[in-house]
Amino acid sequence: MLWRSRKTTLRTYCPTGLRSLLPPDPAPLPSAWLLCETKTDDVSLVISVGRCIGWRGSVVGTLTYWLLPVEELPGDPVNAHPRPTSSPSTHQLSRDPPALPRPTSSPSTHQLSSTHQLSRDPPALPRPTSSPVTHRLSRDPPALPRPINCCLQKATNVTYQVNHVSRNKRGQVLGQRGGFRGCTVWFTGLSGAGKTTMSFALEEYLVSRGIPAYCLDGDNMRHGLNKNLGFSDEDREENIRRVSEVAKLFADSGVVALCSFVSPFTKDRELARKIHEDTGLPFFEVFVDTPLEVCEQRDVKGLYKKARAGIIKGFTGIDAQYEKPEAPNVVLKTHQCSVDECVHQVLEILDEWEIIPKSVTETVKELFVQENKLASAKNEAESLPSVNITTLDLQWLQVLSEGWASPLTGFMRERDYLQSQHFGCLMDSGVSNQSIPIVLPVSTSDKEQLDGCSAFTLRYEGRPVAILRKPEFYEHRKEERCSRQFGTTCKDHPYIQMINESGDWLCGGDIEALERIKWNDGLDEYRLTPMELRAKFRQMSADAVFAFQLRNPVHNGHALLMQDTRRQLLERGYHNPVLLLHPLGGWTKSDDVPLKTRMEQHHAVLKEGVLDPATTVLAIFPSPMMYAGPTEVQWHAKARMATGANFYIVGRDPAGMPHPHTKKDLYHAQHGRKVLTMAPGLTQLEIIPFRVAAYDTEAGKMAFYDPARKPDFEFISGTKMRALARSGENPPNGFMAPTAWKVLSNYYKSLSKE
């Protein structure tokens, strides 16, 4: 029947003050409240105030007390109250300590005997006999006419911040990298300095790379654990103390706890550090040093405006002091650096303290020879034995050298090859998705020539392009490779045909690329490397990148999906989501539209404004196409992670094709999407399913398919589209941008002439 209060300050409140806060009596109830105050477990004071309206704890500062129902005021002749005569189960809260006797000392002293100690929970007491209301004892306190709020100023100027990382995504990655990572990173600074932005960005970065992290945001904590605290100095101190203890528990569990709090007082931040260091947990103080005038200009929540108008009192930076850290571990200048740059400043110290592995920060590993060693490497290449490689091999060399397949350092040795074939991942430096093997086939004669050498040169059309070091040769088991990678060994599958025609041995080794691969086809400017794309996104101030791969022309159904994805990201709180329109630029089968035509068509779509050029980056992905369905689509998604993309749009039957003989889909149309949501090592990406779009004959445009209006929708297949283009006919208005259709139509008409 008792309600235990929280700890508060009593010194500024007297019985009269408390009495004034009591509501009118709703009914004749017991005559007094007994106030028990304790500094530890010893009862030190008894005060009676007002009339009793029930059992209710209250809150007032640094001491703990309970309000207990009594029948007489402490000054009355009755000095003690009888113990209950009914069963203890009727009068005691479950799991509470035994009942506490009434005080027997003189009322003038208002002291309870020291032999009667309060345990961590208040004791059960007898029911008041004068009350007509029956209060049945249970584990929960009884309902009251209204709660009593003795002295708290509730926080109202707070806004709940929604994490970018979902619970499902967080659950995928806990412990994925192995090793203990527990620590606390404490962001401090003025309101509007960028603490929450930095902490959420760092959280997203770590979680997407397999490091468990969680952000304890100041506003969020005041919505829950600390919602009974205001902004007085005492409440601010208690706010930080509680959060420090919670962060310590998170860190102790192996999670990187990210705390974003104004925390204006040095002594409070030092206490937070001490709480961690006393238990051997690393604590990093990050000062988000943004000038007051910049914070006021941002004023996202409108708090500075209210503080200047006097609506909010005691606002840090305006009429309350902020004590700057004297020796923070990191200082962030958010008004001078981008979010990405600030995040990497914090990552550097986590790397220095070995909180995170090197592979977390080195996400793209380019394999080019350093500029100052290039001349020497080229001379060495001329002196080494060499092997000629095919155009397909050169495309894979470009993929490796630019870092698309990081952490691979070259063509796969047998250990990497087996991991890829059997697990779909590389396992030696944390789990990294690698669903398809990237290998260098060589002939038996080449193997015999190169066997025993420590390095050899790769030549394309007679020109040295790379050095392969520490080569390892192993059998090219073609049938097994195809059955595992493609789910078929059909010899008429176009990529399987190339595998069967390649060498009987595979050679793995570390690659040193002598030059960046150029194709001199007028499109090299669009072949941006992962590092160049990252720089481009930073320049655009992108806070989210969503990638869309395609090997076909863009129609308005594709555009609708990309537009809708951007809308969803804006609604989720991103400010500038950027689309990476990323057509595949390596080898494709002969009946696919050539890259040059596709790029011209994509430009027409952008020029007509179907896609916004200001928020779209058009670039070429250099990988060859394998038509390996769900196995290959994992590679397509993993490679986009190297660009910094964090969202990936997957369509129907990705990387699929009809069976060469039966002409039915070789892979289930939905399996690619489903596999991506389960694939290991892709946690940086959130997979966005492709919503089915069709031509809405009523609206005269492409729209998301509505089964309830099935007769109103027309599905325009690729076969029908090609037939229309060859015959010079136009598709329905709204199917494709007119100038983009003209590019496609001209291409198919040229084939007809040939």
UniProtKB/TrEMBL annotation:
Pfam assignment, any one: APS_kinase
Any one GO BP annotation for this protein: sulfate assimilation
Pathway: Sulfur metabolism; sulfate assimilation
All copies of domain ATP-sulfurylase PUA-like, residue ranges: 361-516
Region named Disordered: 77-144
Gene3D superfamilies in the record: HUPs, P-loop containing nucleotide triphosphate hydrolases, Sulfate adenylyltransferase
Residues in Sulphate adenylyltransferase catalytic domain copies: 525-746
Record-linked InterPro entries: APS, APS_kinase_dom, ATP-Sase_PUA-like_dom, P-loop_NTPase, PUA-like_sf, Rossmann-like_a/b/a_fold, Sulfurylase_cat_dom, Sulphate_adenylyltransferase
Compositional bias annotation for Polar residues: 103-117
Highest taxon in the source lineage: Eukaryota
Gene Ontology terms, MF aspect: adenylylsulfate kinase activity; ATP binding; sulfate adenylyltransferase (ATP) activity
UniProt domain APS kinase: residue ranges: 181-333
Assigned keywords, A-Z: ATP-binding, Kinase, Multifunctional enzyme, Nucleotide-binding, Nucleotidyltransferase, Transferase
Record's keyword annotation contains Nucleotide-binding: yes
HAMAP family: Adenylyl_sulf_kinase
NCBIfam families with a match to the protein in the record: apsK, PRK03846.1, sopT
Record-stated family: In the N-terminal section; belongs to the APS kinase family.
Protein name: Bifunctional 3'-phosphoadenosine 5'-phosphosulfate synthase-like
Species for this entry: Homarus americanus
Gene designation per UniProt: Papss-L
